[in-house]
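Why does this matter for the project? Reviewers at the last site visit asked to see concrete outputs rather than summary tables. In response, this paragraph embeds two records directly. Each consists of the residue sequence and, immediately after it, the corresponding structure tokens. Nothing has been edited or filtered.
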Amino acid sequence: MTQASTLLRPSVTGPGPGARDRAQLPLPAAMGTALGLFLAARLLGVAALAAVSWAAGRHPLALLGRSWDSLWYLGIAAHGYGRTVHHNPTVVYSDLAFFPLYPALVRAATVLGPLSAGASGLIVSWTAAAVAACGIYAVGARLHGRAVGTALVLLWGLLPHSVVLSMAYTEPVLTAFAAWSLYALLTGRWVWAGALAALAGAARPNGFAVAAAVLATAAYEVWRQRGKVTHRLWTGAALAPAGWAGYVLWVGHRRGDLLGGYFEVQREWGSRFDFGRGSVHFIRHMLLHEDRFVSPMTMVIVAAAVVLYALLLADRAPLPLVVHSGVLLLVALGGSGFFESKPRFLLPAFPLLLPLARALVRTARARPGHATVVVAALAGLSFAYGAYLVVFAHTPL
């Protein structure tokens, strides 16, 4: 699946496909260009959402800062864990389902600054999204050159669900730690990779995908080197699952079931891993009995993610990217509950966009006008669909 020469240090075997554009522009300037394009995309998306929300008589900052899961995270930041809502006799919503890193960051921002909890949540998310964009650029540029790194960041900022990157949600935080952990793996920085993976695991339930990437890469390297590896590899591998496992065990201890307590909380939310049976049932019900826009769009996005993963495999992507994206895709496909949230769960799977980024760069070099039309179309879809999701759709993000 993955060549040994591209597993950790893909640039050591030769100049590579992106050597020309790597040599043309200093790294900080190139990363600044990518970040600038990402910020421009998200600012235009927020401006479109603001215009739509004002036309609908609603306040855009309130929608961005206090929608759906944001309210749970802000409650944890303000009061700690302990809130439970009984939706019906079989569905019980407990805030223990939400991992602690994001509310801790919001709490710190609220204590240290003059902003409200909602504004602090937005600041944390926006800052994390910018850090994530830089990390995504670093991964793309290392593998395929700076033009592809820039295109990768732009495509990530123009995904149909990229409006979530501008909201008080955890996906930007998870993606920031995931991107830099994967970059650390690609450059052989094992301790950094493990520490960042631990933080990713403390951000979201699917954050264990980053730890899986670290552990799989470490196992491959141990096998390839026949056990003769540095102690830094063992340290990084030990650190990687600590954040996710630590919170799961803490919830289990609190619920009186050390290994199963957290998963019982998820089941009470109606969320479990059932190998896709719940998703199939939902799709069947939607096709037969409903005519909504968000659910069919979700089906298209998830199907596109499967195709992109196949292309990533065909492209012989490095093992850490394959494992990280594969675990995120497996969780999205195999999990039941909150079907419309699946595209949001895939936002941290940015390596899926690498084949598209490479194709966009090739198109831009051969036919710049065609590439401009493609980017404009993606931007229009992203901005319009994002505004619809936040302002009008009555489905959980």
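We now turn to the second protein, recorded in exactly the same manner.
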Amino acid sequence: MTFAAWRRPRVILWTAASVVFLGFLIALEITARRLGVTGPLVSQLREVIFPPKSGFLLYGGMALMMVVLTWRQRLIGAGVAVGIDAVILLVRWVLDAPATGGHPFGTGALWVMLGCAVIAVTRRTGAERALLLKGVGLGLALVAGRKIGDIWLFITAKTRPMVLDQYVATADHALGNPSWLVGRIVEASGPVGNHVLDVIYAQLAVAAVAVAMYQLRHVATERRFPVHHLVRTFLVIGLLGPAVYMIFPVVGPVFAYGPGASGTGGPEWALLNLWPNTPPPVNVPHSMIYDGITPRNCMPSLHTAWATAIFIHSRKGPRALRIAGTFWLIATLTATLGFGYHYGVDLVAGVVFTLTIESALRAFDRGWDRSAIQLVVHGAVVFAALLVAYRFLPLEMARHPWVFGPLLILAMLSVIHGYIRTTRQWEPKAAPALQPEPQPEMV
């Protein structure tokens, strides 16, 4: 019976995926060590004792894990996490050892997640053990994704010295250089507008946790996860998106055409110091060398991709959640452009990228029929065509903006329309209400 269970297709798939993921983590750890930085595995183990890089992320991961717990267990877990952080904070205060280089909280949340994993292995059996381990895995996956992303961005900077910003900036003329326009608007908004957008941009994972917790709110009572939810899309975007960074390395307008930001880049590396006041001239683009620190993380815009996923998954929530999802999408798009982290064409590619992944995941759950294959192929072809156009047709796009600008928007809208039309057909139809049959009456 046990051997037969292990031979089930879904079990085989998850086992193979786990092995591949573990191998990827080990390879990433070795690569990071060779580049002189700490890898994701060691970095996560360090946070068991040392101040974590993001305490908010650890508490967000713990909140995701708690969807499998009862309310009593959630209160106990949250109390234990806060208590551990309070004790650690008190010890650091007594020893005069401030939490430099990280947040003074978050270690307690990590300890609670690891403790639940130990409880699942030692005190649970069968379906209850599997459910608790899935919850722990969900929380730790959110944290591990951030760690892997940080290391991968460092690898892009070290292994891709040449960047293609001139090509993307030239192609962006077809959209009217939106980063330059929004950059001036954000600059005019002053420190308050900058601070609000910075918080929204940096805490995208918190919005994702809020939507995911709504989708997973019935897990504790139903004792199972829904077939599809936001966390799956979020993780797949984070897994596949950075691979495109290696194919199409771009640093962004604030770095390639501006003063740089966050201690990286700078005028000495920029082609011209123009952002955000003067759009770049239309010239024949060339690849150019850039520093070994700034991530090549523009194409596609994964912040746009994740914000789009949040927007999609918030559509079936209550009105407040739908409004929040819309606000987060608009604010994230404003921040990505206004801070000079992305060009407009990056955002177009990010939207198409997300809808293609979301379509593939939903098709995997319901089955690959003709409509599903057409939807995914359409999105993949449009995404590939965008990258090819940005790389090989940027000068033509800049010289004929009234042709290529609408074409870019129409290509994106075609993917959006195809996704909405097809997924609506996939939705289960509500059964018509039964009408009572007419009964004979006395005359």
